[in-house]
Amino acid sequence: MGELILVRHGETEWSRARRHTGLTDVPLTARGEEQARALRAALKERRIVRTLVSPAERARRTAELAGLPAAETDPDLREWDYGGYEGITTAEIRETRPGWFLWDDGVVPGGAGHPGETVGQVGARADAVLARVGPVSDGPLSKGDVALVAHGHFLRVLTARWLGLEPALGRLFALGTGTLSALGTEHDRPVVSAWNVPPP
Questions:
Q1: What does the pLDDT read at residue 138?
Q2: 143-177 pLDDT, tens per residue?
């Protein structure tokens, strides 16, 4: 059986500034493009039979530069909708909500197109992705690796769900831009095989 290869998109101006970037389509920086290109060598060593990518341009560009051009767009791989916290930092949010923590306190509704999501809603999307690519005898993972190119918070939630944990326990898995991680099995039980590996 193959593994799920998680690719977090490369750096953007907003990720560098630690601004919550959910549905806003922010392009990669020059460094983000370099990170994506640097992933190519590690991904080339894998037997990837299917690639799913978030609809966001930063994820699609990362997939392309990393050598995954045949990626299928999957809307369930989009980032957490941060609602009214879109584009602002945790420090800015804490000016009006002291001690705020995304994983415990959630988001507030935003303007048009940014209603916000609960961690449970993000978890339901992660479950839908896993149901399509998970470890079933006749699924894609029975033939090789499946690459998912997406976003930090979403991939952390997906990892929690892979392990059978509540979505909010994604908070335990810090994940940098332009990194590779792998989810697999050991004795038929889900495990993290590699985590937050920077480009070589």
A1: 67
A2: 899 999 999 999 999 999 999 999 999 999 999 99
Catalytic one of 3, 9, 33, 114: 9
Q: Is-catalytic flag, 9? A: yes
Q: Is the model more confident about 92 or about 71? A: 92
Q: Among 198, 129, 121, which residue's Cα sits nearest to residue 159?
A: 129
Burial class of 174 by CB neighbour count within 10 A (0 to 12, 13 to 18, 19+): exposed
Active-site residue, selected from the candidate residues 3, 11, 79, 86: 79
Give the C-alpha separation, 168 to 157, whole Å.
7
* Span 21-65, pLDDT tens digits: 999 999 999 999 999 999 999 999 999 999 999 999 999 999 999
Q: How far apart are CA 136 and CA 129, in angstroms?
A: 13
Distance CA 177, CA 7 (A): 9
The model's pLDDT over 94-128, given as tens digits with 9 standing for 90+, comes to 999 999 999 999 999 998 889 999 999 999 999 99
The number of helices, as runs of H, and strands, as runs of E, in the chain is 8, 6
33 Cβ contact list (under 8 Å, min separation 6): 10, 61, 65
Any bridge partners for residue 6, and if so which?
148, 181
